[in-house]
Amino acid sequence: MMAGLSLPGPTVIGLDPLYTGGVGLAEVLITLLKVGVAFALLMVAVMLMIWFERKVISDMQNRIGPNLAGPFGILQTLADGIKLFFKEDLIPEQSDRLVFKLAPYLSLVPAFLVFAVVPVGGDFSGGNGRVSLFGHETFLQVADPPVGILLVLAMSSVAVYGVMLAGWSSGSKYPLLASVRASAQMVSYEAALGLSLAAVLLKSGSLSTNQIVAEQSVWNWNLWVTWVVPMVIFLIAATAELNRPPFDLVEAEQELVGGFHTEYSSIRFALFYLAEFMNMITMSAIVVTLFLGGPNGPDFTSVGWLSGVLWFFAKLMLFLFSFVWLRATLPRFRYDQLMDLGWKLLIPLSLGWLLVLASYDVAGDRGWNRAAAVIVALAIMAALASLLALALRAARQRRELDPQGEFV
Amino acid sequence: METAVFIVCAAIVLAGALGVVLARNAVHAALSLVGTLFGMAVLFLNLEAHFLAAVQIIVYAGAIVVLFLFVIMLLGVDRLEDLSVEPITGQRVLAAIVGLGTFGLAVVFLLTSDIGARSVGTLTRDITDIGQYSNLRQIADVLFTDYVYAFEATAALLTISVVGAVVMSRRMARGDEAQEAAEDD
Fold it and tell me: What does A86-128 look like in DSSP terms, one character per residue?
């Protein structure tokens, strides 16, 4: 039994050095500790994030915001959570009870699982990200599966179910409309998300998040290795995937009441709320891992692992603040604008950029002139872009001339 | 360990499959299908086919069943249907014959092949050095060398079917409107 355990163990959980010497009690306990810490960290982070968003947005709107519960109102989220927990749990008459109860968990669990593959610390400049925990070498991440970053894509596609089923099972008109709209948005932007990610994979040559971070050590960040564009696309697609403003059509109050979770109350609503903010944190963590080198940065402390954690946290805050800033600044997109941006700009652009990056690499391998290869690739991209623009203009003109489609 | 995972996952896969067939509500059937797909993904993991497992979830659970649900919700076929009437005559008899035939073929294949003699360990032993020679690299190697024509043909087929779907949906709309216009005259 132990021999069978040691064979699939290491490769299923990942390439973590913790498991190379077989799995015993100590390894299991360390893994459980890591899971517990990650869980607690996320919960506290969500609590603080909700408070942070409310405080920052009130500052930007010239008001005070929560200030009663605890110092600076920092316990406001806790108070809200306790209140929601003790409120009456309503299940609408027309709802599909089983699916109605299932949906919040389908939103929440993927948000948790994504965080498991994020390396939050470790010395990547020379130590390959390993830290010593109770005398055992390990990574500062819960798991490092060989398919690492694909797990993120898989979980974000599973998260669609939460939104979709919540809207459908409510047995009510507005949630259904909102959930159809939301899932169309999330499915569309997943394509742009995956394609911009391909640029990172091309440069890193690995799916494992630990490997991707190690490749970026110390200043070799993918932000400039992939020439900025993939990160911009990824950020826009991630914002849409999270249903954050300016892409928050999911809860357009004027059109859809409260969005897909209109009929939810009490603790089930709290779960959706939790999942939304947790997704924001994990997605920011993924951007930091993929494009900003994760815990990479010059070591300014004497303790090896601390500097990495601090760098990671600083980079994370940058994105969390940006999300709040976006919400305070930008008005909501119209639905057709949202779809146009995704399908007609982001997806073609990320495909084209993959072509440019690949041509640069291939030219290097074959000993061709790299500049020439990139210029040719850019020319092909420009030609295709103008073809696409022509096709779009022709379609628009025809629609304007003949709105009913009678004389086509 | 592998056996235990296999038993649990096989139970999930079978329960999901039964749910797809037996659920009266179309949405419940689609959700059972998701359960089956997840069970299959874990079975792939058990065989150390990590990439396949991830793709199984991203493509099947994340895209295809979401589209199923989309169609179910938009067409409003999520109400209980009258199952006493057979939509196409002879459909059920035919389905039973084909199903039993497939099952029989699978049983015959399992009994005659030597796949049971080989253990999982020997099948996956040569890819223990995952960092050097990962699933992804193996699949890419085969896909872009031995099967490159099949791969490109599949890509072309998918593109053609997308274009075809767009063209057909436009034609239909035009035909309907032309008919309506003729009726108005």
Answer: HS-----TTS-HHHHHHHHHHHHHHHHHHHTT-------SSST
Q: Is the ipTM above a cut-off of 0.85? A: no
Are B171 and B117 contained in the same domain? Answer: no
**Structural domain of B176:** 147-185
Residue B120 and residue B184 in one domain: no
**3-state secondary structure (DSSP) of residue A69:** coil
Domain boundary assignment for chain A? 79-333, 339-400
CB A95 within 8 A of CB A271: no
| Residues whose CB is less than 8 angstroms from the CB of residue A348 and which lie 6 or more positions away in sequence, other chains included | A384, A385, A388
The Cα of B123 is separated from the nearest Cα of chain A by a number of Å equal to 13
Q: pTM to 2 decimals?
A: 0.85
- Token duo for residue A56: 């920052």
Contacts of B54 in chain A (CB under 8 A): 147, 150-151, 153-154
Q: Are A378 and A371 within 8 A, CB to CB?
A: no
One domain, residues B77 and B154: no
Q: Mind listing the pLDDT tens digit for each residue in A214-239? A: 888 878 888 888 889 999 999 999 99
* Closest alpha carbon within chain A to B119: A4
Whether residue B152 sits in one domain with residue B66: no
Kindly give the residue spans of alpha helices, DSSP state H, lying in A116-172. 148-169
- Is B99 a domain residue? no
